[in-house]
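Appendix B, example 12.
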Amino acid sequence: MAPTGTGFERKSVAIVGLGSIGGVIAGLLSAIDRYDIIACVRRPVERLTVERPEGGIEVPISSLTDPALAKPVDWVLLCTKTQDTAASASWLERLCGERTHVAALQNGIGHDERLAPFVGQATVVPTVVYYNGERLAPDRVRCRRAGDYDFAVSDDAAGQSFAALLDGTSMRVLVTGDFKTLAWRKLLINAVANPTSALTLQRNAVFRREDVTTLCLALLEEAAAVGRADGAQLAADEPEQSIARLLSVPADAGSSMYFDRLAGRPLEVEALTGAVVALGERHSVPTPLLRMLLTLTRAASEGAPLLPRRSV
């Protein structure tokens, strides 16, 4: 591939899943005009708007709707929900070659194991995504900061390549020697906050309630005990730190599970709360409160949509 005038090789990047997370990163990568971006979608999108605190951007974007027409690319950014990974198999099969890197911009842990059956010889790059995305329309997303970094990746060749890919965007990438602990820190919050917001049908403001904070602390104590048993280096006051991080997110931000429940979509509970409960069983760590939360969220996931479905 020919290098650009700035010395950057003009790589090909496919975004699979142009939702709240994928839409943000697709827009920001398109804005720096260093890569050939293709959005793999069900319906064509010609322009993409990203709303963000430092100012919005609007960029043209190329889209592809038929996996049979896809060709191997340098990078695949998989931005679907974890339960939709298998449904992306037709895209991954066509997009992945032996030199392809597949960055998993997904919640939970165990990215390598989840993607291995679908990516052939491609290199999987697990990530922790920190920014809060909200899909406002098929061609418009909103990005909010949710901490000091927007991504974390492992301090290895694959993680460093991902950080280099985002160089020039506004995304802040932490390259860490202890990816497992950071992944667990994110999982603690997701496993507790996502179901709580979905069940209460409230945005992050709900965590300002004293009674909800107390309940979340008890849930986080269980989750942290599982994480430590699984090898994560979590602090003794990790639950309190998790609450502080959660409260640093704007009160009007909403979790992905909150938006999914409003729309009647399946909830990503198995990869979050379900994963913690399952690992608790494996490590013989009791999780009674998390089990209750998991049961209620599973039931909510099977319910009818709370808002009329919009065609997208």
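The first strand starts at residue 12 and ends at 16. The radius of gyration is 19 Å.
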